[in-house]
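#structure-requests
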Amino acid sequence: MKVAVFSTKPYDKEFLEAANRSFGHELVFLEPRLTSQTVSLANGFPTVCVFVNDEVNARVLLHLQRHGTKHIALRCAGYNNVDLQVAEELGFIVSRVPAYSPQAVAEHTMALILALARKLHKSYNRVREGNFALDGLLGIDLAGKTAGVIGTGKIGRLVAKRLLAFECSVCAFDLKPDEELVSVGVQYVGYDELFRKSDIITLHCPLVPATYHLINEETLALMKRGVILINTSRGALVDSQAVIRALKSGKIGALGLDVYEEEADLFFEDLSNQVIQDDVFMRMLTFPNVIITGHQAFFTYNAMQAIARMTLENITAVERGEQPPGLLRWQEARAIGA
């Protein structure tokens, strides 16, 4: 099948080409993001392959339909950038990669928690400058702390287990409690209780209308002073302006982000020689108790191999007239966020 691959980076091409030796699709790699301005590049392609910051809205979908596209293949787990209702009404098949390497994201989450708890980012910079003073580097033990995990799907459940291994008390919120986690000591509670009792809060839920700006002025007000907040899920789960105010007041003691609600114009690009125009993002970077990584939690060798293979498996199934293993339906997606 002829496939237009949008938002291509060198590593995307490397892993997709390697996996494609077993599939034989015609992959055309395109550097731009898919938007209403670039959608004409997909004309005549039965499948378009997109990533997290590509825009697959109603306008883009209508254009794709008029020009022969039948299949939207996401090479990621998240789908909030796709208007699934419109896609279904227009007859598109939409597929995703629901589980590539949950370990990768879970381990990155723990890396952020540990780095913030022990101020590793600050000590790294000090030592490089020959400063070995310990003033200002006093950390905390994770053992004995209460950690709140919001969302205990494939990634969240792994994070919960790792926090238990660090001797944290773990509470969680999910629409469908995981009985295995309950059996090993995780306590499922409501949002308000989780916010009130947790020393560490980490987000692993999908972005749907019900979770948009889940972290906001009201929920931050419920939290303990000095809470560690981590988001490796979706940027718009967090109201960035509210978080800045909470950092200024000391309500948030440390913040670790791998995603950002306005990341589309920032992440995955080298902007080191430019003046970044996003004032909210730059304000967050000024705080000494903030670590931001550029949506790299998924980015491991194992995960990239799995993403490439599963994306091409979905494309192959559609080419054969079969249901792709990563089929994404609008009603099922609604149920996840109900």
